[in-house]
């Protein structure tokens, strides 16, 4: 019989080898479909997206617009101007340009600007990058503009995969070594998480091919973090239970079966809740957010499948020796545990639950006030934590040309309405100049220069007035308009997705816990954590990290992740509390027992998850750094304040009312106590 059971373990491993062999061709192609242009993040209905689409359909396809910047602090010399003119002529000789570049000097004489536009690369990003690099090799000045910024952004996103994966693996490995105190055990869940990440890449590519979901550097980066963070959490819960069963059961296979029966339902329920919460992002209009929903759900589900199948098979095949040097021998008893930190926390919450609840709620409210200090909307030049050449050029232009815009606003109008649109643009307040450009496929391009610096409040107001004046059927785009559309779409998505997430998660919790009050407590707790985490971000983003703005999608994405992941841990606590009540314990005692018995392992899981998201803080993209920081802070607040003190104290205060309107709220449910020497099922 034992031989057959070992064969089952080897069979599962063989099945996974086949799955990975099939997944390999798909996983390796995920980077080919990743898109990180601003218009790739926006919905198809946005004005700026329609402008980009029309421009690509014109003769020559989409143009690559660059700005060549020559600058000297003390003022440009005659030799500088001659060098600039010669280099620009060389660029024009080597590449077909839309029109001959003209020099635009700054009033203080320190800077010379040349606008360069070429349809040569078309919509091919590889050709665009080659064109940008070739121009940079030719000119001695800075090369900026939308085309150069897109190239720099693509290179930054392309450089994320390796450092993000290596740093995440290193962080998880260190934490697992500390938690397990084993020379070998930490390698097993880490390797399984790597397999799950590989599988999630393949599934995401297949979803893109089948359903055209948006894939961005942001979504794939977050997916990797989720796979390692959530996957390691599930591994911690399973291994903890497996270690206990090995002391009671002689054979590893039987011990693993008992462990899966014990913690499997709670892990399945929590991961399912996280996945459903992530899928609510499908209701978002922003492409990047809508694409992140299924991508994140794929990461969580692949981590779940790997940790509930591959990890058990590996542990069973390796046997007890994988725990060396702390091998749990059959019939042995664990070392006498000292009074745990969570027992002490539970006792303090049990003695004065009302005071603890009010003090904790006041602390969260105070932290949430910091959200009022969040910096304004993130500008394009502030999206990098470093300073690529395109960003340096934008900053040089902003200082040298404060009196006018240096980044064109692109208007596309039906060719028959182009003369009227041009007159309207010239008559609009805040427009310095406008001129007609290319025509084709029934559309005409009009290039508009605003009288204010790019992405300033005044330029934003000009774009809004221009859109109103031009009317329907004429679209206003360009980099500044894209940022405006992102902010507007993000606001719309918050109003739709946030209530949807709350309703979906609440329904799942009601079904799982068979109560209305307990789910409402958990929902209120995670919403409070979200507000406090944003508040902490508002206190440190600008002053400590030097971030120049806040990503428009931060509030929505952090809300979805913190609600889903926070409820994930709440399920483990409430699941154990409910079991204690079903065994006859009073609600107050059940809450303290649940905290004492689940606190350590869930705290370890919370630390791992927070640490993996904290890895994003060191990434060179401000959007990722802000998202990682807020989620990491939220997970820590949930683990060590909300779940430990607030949820526990609220449960003690409410007593049986916490299970209203279920049967546990009305009277004790008599059930048989567990056999002597065997504790109730734990997660």
What's the arrangement of secondary structure elements?
Layout: H1 2-27, H2 38-41, H3 47-57, E1 64-71, H4 78-94, E2 103-105, E3 111-118, H5 125-138, E4 142-144, H6 146-158, H7 161-180, H8 187-211, H9 217-248, H10 252-279, H11 287-318, H12 341-351, H13 353-368, H14 389-400, E5 409-414, H15 418-427, E6 431-440, E7 443-450, H16 457-470, E8 475-477, H17 479-513, H18 517-540, H19 554-582, H20 587-614, H21 622-654
Antiparallel strand pairs: 1-3, 1-4, 2-3, 5-7, 5-8, 6-7
Helix pairs in contact: 1-8, 1-11, 5-6, 7-9, 7-20, 8-9, 8-11, 9-10, 9-11, 9-20, 10-11, 10-17, 10-19, 12-13, 12-20, 12-21, 13-18, 13-21, 17-18, 17-19, 18-19, 18-21, 19-20, 19-21, 20-21
**Biggest sheet, spatial arrangement of strands:** 2-3-1-4
Low-confidence stretches: 669-683
| Share in helix | 55-70%
Q: How would a textbook summarize the main sheet?
A: 4 strands, antiparallel
- Helix count from the secondary structure assignment: 21
Structural class: alpha+beta
Kindly state the number of beta strands. 8
Percent of residues in β-strands: 5-15%
Q: Report Rg.
A: 29 Å
Cα(first) to Cα(last) distance is 28 Å
Specify the overall morphology.
Answer: elongated
Average pLDDT taken over every residue: 86
Give the H and E element order. HHHEHEEHEHHHHHHHHHEHEEHEHHHHH
Could you describe the 3D structure shown?
64% of the residues lie in helices and 7% in strands. A hairpin with a 5-residue loop joins strand 2 and strand 3. It is of the alpha+beta class. The strands form two sheets. It has a four-stranded antiparallel beta sheet, with helices on both faces. Strands 6-7-5-8 form a four-stranded antiparallel beta sheet, sandwiched between helices. It is elongated.
């Amino acid at each position: 019989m034992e031989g057959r059971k070992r064969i089952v373990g080897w069979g599962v491993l063989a099945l996974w080898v086949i799955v990975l062999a099939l997944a390999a061709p798909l996983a390796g192609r995920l980077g080919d479909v990743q898109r990180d242009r601003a218009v790739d993040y926006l919905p198809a209905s946005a004005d700026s997206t329609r402008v980009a689409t029309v421009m690509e359909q014109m003769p020559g396809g989409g143009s690559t617009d660059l700005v060549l910047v020559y600058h000297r602090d003390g003022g440009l010399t005659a030799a500088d101007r001659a060098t600039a003119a010669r280099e620009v002529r060389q660029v024009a000789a080597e590449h077909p340009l839309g029109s001959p570049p003209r020099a635009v000097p700054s009033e203080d004489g320190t800077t010379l600007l040349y606008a360069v536009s070429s349809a040569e690369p078309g919509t091919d990003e590889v050709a665009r990058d080659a064109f940008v690099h070739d121009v940079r090799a030719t000119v001695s000045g800075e090369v900026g503009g939308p085309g150069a910024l897109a190239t720099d952004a693509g290179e930054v996103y392309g450089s994320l995969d390796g450092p993000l994966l290596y740093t995440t693996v290193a962080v998880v490995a260190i934490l697992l070594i500390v938690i397990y105190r084993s020379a070998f055990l930490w390698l097993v869940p880490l390797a399984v998480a790597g397999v799950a990440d590989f599988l999630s890449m393949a599934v995401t590519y297949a979803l893109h091919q089948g359903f055209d979901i948006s894939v961005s550097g942001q979504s794939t980066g977050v997916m990797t973090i989720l796979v390692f963070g959530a996957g390691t959490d599930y591994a911690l819960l399973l291994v903890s239970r497996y270690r206990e069963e090995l002391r009671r059961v002689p054979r590893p296979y039987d011990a693993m079966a008992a462990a899966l029966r014990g913690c499997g339902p709670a892990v399945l329920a929590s991961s399912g809740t996280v996945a459903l919460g992530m899928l609510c992002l499908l209701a978002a209009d922003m492409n990047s957010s809508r694409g992140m929903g299924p991508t994140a759900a794929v990461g969580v589900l692949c981590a779940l499948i790997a940790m509930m199948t591959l990890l058990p098979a590996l542990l069973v095949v390796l046997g007890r020796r994988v725990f060396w040097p702390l091998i749990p021998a059959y019939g042995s008893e664990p070392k006498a545990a000292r009074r745990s930190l969570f027992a002490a926390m539970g006792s303090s919450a049990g003695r004065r639950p009302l005071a603890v609840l009010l003090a904790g709620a006041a602390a969260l409210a105070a932290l949430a006030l910091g959200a009022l200090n969040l910096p304004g909307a993130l500008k394009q030049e502030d999206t990098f934590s470093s300073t690529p050449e395109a960003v340096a050029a934008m900053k040089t232009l902003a200082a040298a040309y404060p009196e006018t815009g240096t980044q064109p606003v692109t208007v596309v109008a039906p060719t028959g309405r182009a003369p009227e649109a041009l007159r309207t643009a010239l008559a609009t307040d805040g427009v310095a100049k406008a001129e007609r450009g290319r025509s084709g496929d029934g559309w005409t391009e009009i290039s508009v220069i605003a009288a204010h610096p790019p992405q300033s409040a005044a330029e934003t107001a000009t774009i809004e007035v221009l859109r109103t004046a031009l009317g329907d059927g004429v679209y206003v785009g360009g980099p500044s308009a894209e940022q405006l559309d992102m902010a507007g779409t993000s606001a719309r998505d918050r109003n739709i997705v946030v209530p949807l997430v709350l309703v979906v998660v609440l329904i799942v919790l009601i079904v799982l816990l068979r109560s209305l009050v307990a789910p409402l407590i958990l929902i209120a707790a995670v919403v409070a954590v979200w507000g406090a985490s944003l508040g902490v971000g508002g206190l440190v983003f600008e002053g400590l990290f030097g971030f120049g703005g806040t990503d428009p999608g931060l509030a929505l994405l952090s809300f979805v992740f913190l609600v889903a992941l926070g409820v994930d841990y709440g399920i483990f606590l409430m699941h154990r509390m409910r079991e204690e009540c079903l065994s006859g314990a009073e609600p107050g005692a059940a809450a303290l027992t649940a905290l004492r018995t689940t606190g350590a392992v869930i705290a370890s899981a919370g630390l791992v998850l927070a640490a993996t998201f904290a890895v994003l803080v060191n990434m060179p993209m401000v959007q990722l750094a802000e998202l990682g920081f807020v989620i990491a802070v939220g997970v820590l607040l949930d683990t060590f304040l909300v779940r430990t003190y607030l949820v526990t104290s609220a449960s003690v205060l409410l007593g049986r009312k916490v299970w209203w309107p279920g049967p546990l709220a009305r009277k004790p449910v008599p059930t048989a106590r567990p056999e002597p020497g065997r504790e109730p099922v734990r997660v």
